Amino acid sequence: MTEKLLHAATAEAAKVIDGRAFSGRMVDEIAIHVSELAHSEGIVPGLAVVLVGEDPASQVYVRNKGIKCRAAGMRSFEHKLSAECSQAELLTLIDRLNSDPTVHGILVQLPLPSHLDTEIVINSIEPAKDVDGFHAVNVGRLATGQAALVPCTPLGCLMLLRAQLGSLAGLEAVIVGRSNIVGKPMAQLLLRENCTATIVHSQSRDIASICRRADILVAAVGRPEMISGDWIKPGAVVIDVGINRLEREGVAKLVGDVVFDQAKSIASAITPVPGGVGPMTIACLLANTLTACRRIHGLPDSRAFAAR
Ligand code: GUN
Fold it and tell me: How many structural domains compose the chain?
């Protein structure tokens, strides 16, 4: 199936992967599993989101997480701390959430104000409740092939890739960007799918020619339209994680890391910005919360949602 899709591609415009529709179906399916869990075991998954400060973008993300959580039938707990809160206050809250049996997932919205130590904060979350998959224990488990909670954005990308291509085994995957949130876990996930996975970054030489080898190109650098059409192998599947706010001719616009209009006549499939990867992140957060809840209660994973 993979070969066929990759080769069929070139003559016509790429399929535009509808992340909104895909994530909507996922949330509906999660809601069914949540309802079954409530009926069979009397357990309702609960997600606690912690927001420190008043960053407007973070406020929007946190509000959306709460809305989607409730829509899936889960409990949502929002904890808002002032921008001046101390590290000790934040760690005390996390301790409380770690031992609260109604909370199965804990997410501390990033970035944190600069006086707080993000590494210490993240590593104070109980790994079994770390639905962001950022705790060093989950990072290590992912890298060694053990059951982990996996970061939501790369997990969402993987789901879109599997739906598009079926088996990813043997494909050349190039990831542009080496962040802990997307680039590095994306490479680990693709390696686990038996891809040949390469990460390129700001110090890499001749990035364009490495990208041109990619059957799967994941752009996660956060630089508006850095990747032009001539960096893309004909028939490649392009996953654009970038969400960059630009002002063009006085109009605010969201663009990805890829020049969409160029890429769509070369790739076989591509995610748009907005409406591609973005909506998948929240759906995967709900999936991770369900997975965390089931594991905490000693229940097997719902296979459709757990990365492993
Ligand atoms: N800020 C931007 N992306 C994320 C994410 O995936 N998780 C958290 N906790 N904060 C973020």
Answer: 2
Ligand 1 lined by 108 (C-beta under 6 Å)? yes
How many C-beta neighbours within 10 Å does residue 57 have? 11
Which residue, among 243, 132, 222, 225, has the nearest Cα to 177 in the 3D structure? Answer: 222
**Do 191 and 274 sit in the same domain of this protein?**
yes
Band (pLDDT 50/70/90 cuts) for residue 248 is confident
pTM (predicted TM-score): 0.95
What is the pLDDT averaged over residues 143-154?
97
Range of the domain at 66: 43-128
| Closest CA relative to residue 218, chosen from 202, 204, 232, 203 | 232
Centroid of ligand 1 to alpha carbon of 217 (angstroms) = 22
Helix 19-41 vs helix 278-296: crossing angle, to nearest 10: 20
Atom of ligand 1 at shortest distance to CA of 132?
A: 7
Three-class secondary structure of residue 270 per DSSP: strand
| Any ligand 1 atom below 6 A from CB of 243 | no
Q: Which class for 48: exposed (0-12), middle (13-18), buried (19 or more C-beta within 10 A)? A: buried
Q: Are residues 160 and 227 in the same domain?
A: yes
